[in-house]
Amino acid sequence: MDLRSLFTTDEELADLEDRDATTNIVGFIDTITAPHESGQNNDILFKFTVSNNNKRIEVLMWDTILIDKYQKDILSNRVININGAYCRATTKSKVKEEKNMVPFEIIIKENTVISFQGYHTLKNTSNIKLQKVTFDNIHAVEGLIEISGFIRTPFSLIHNRSGNMTYGLGAITDKARKITVQIKQFTASDLEIGDFVTVSGIVKDQDSLVTIYCDSMNNIKLDPDVESLTPEIVQRGGRPVKRIRTVQK
Description:
The chain is mostly beta strands. The protein has 2 domains: about 5-120, CATH 2.40.50.140; about 130-240, CATH 2.40.50.140. It has 4 helices and 14 strands. The chain has helices at about 10-15, 65-70, 95-100, 230-235, and strands at about 25-40, 45-50, 55-60, 80-90, 100-105, 115-120, 130, 145-160, 165-175, 175-185, 195-205, 210-215, 220, 240. Strands 1-2-3-5-4 form a 5-stranded mixed barrel. It is elongated, with a radius of gyration of 21 Å.
């Protein structure tokens, strides 16, 4: 079954009503912000966005009991059905419009019913060409790529500057250059410095330093047939791979 047929449409999102305490939306979980203190009373807030593959809406969860109950189940790309939530209008802004955010937010209450209905595939990967690249040419491509290298910086959990969002971060090297790898849905692994791995992910052309964006640690595969390097060797591969930009006249 194509779960997109269940998603709340753009028109339905536009028709949401301020202060409606029985709001129902369906979509996939897009971004997740870790619980953090917020508001005048420094209450704990857990926040994530839900998307219908076009428009996005922010979902707030303030109650620590609810956070403890649901946080472990809030996973990227998981299809979520939220029924009986409180809808609140928000201030429109250019930034929100650029992010396709609707001018409402959904607040989870104790009476809200949350259910999950599988996972949404963001793109039909069968129609996307996987480009097998090397450290020599990755600077000139964008899109879905696959590259192999040795782990230079071990993959670990990182918080953003405000401390309210987490992701995984590490780096691979060819013994001379390095490429940063960022993981959206990070889980700990047994991979170590010097291990030879194959990474599949997305490269974006707007990054000055080449970065590979992965959905999860499943996109990083160990190749046990290639002998690992010592830390002394991989630490030499510290020159970042940069994207070559053309100057428009």
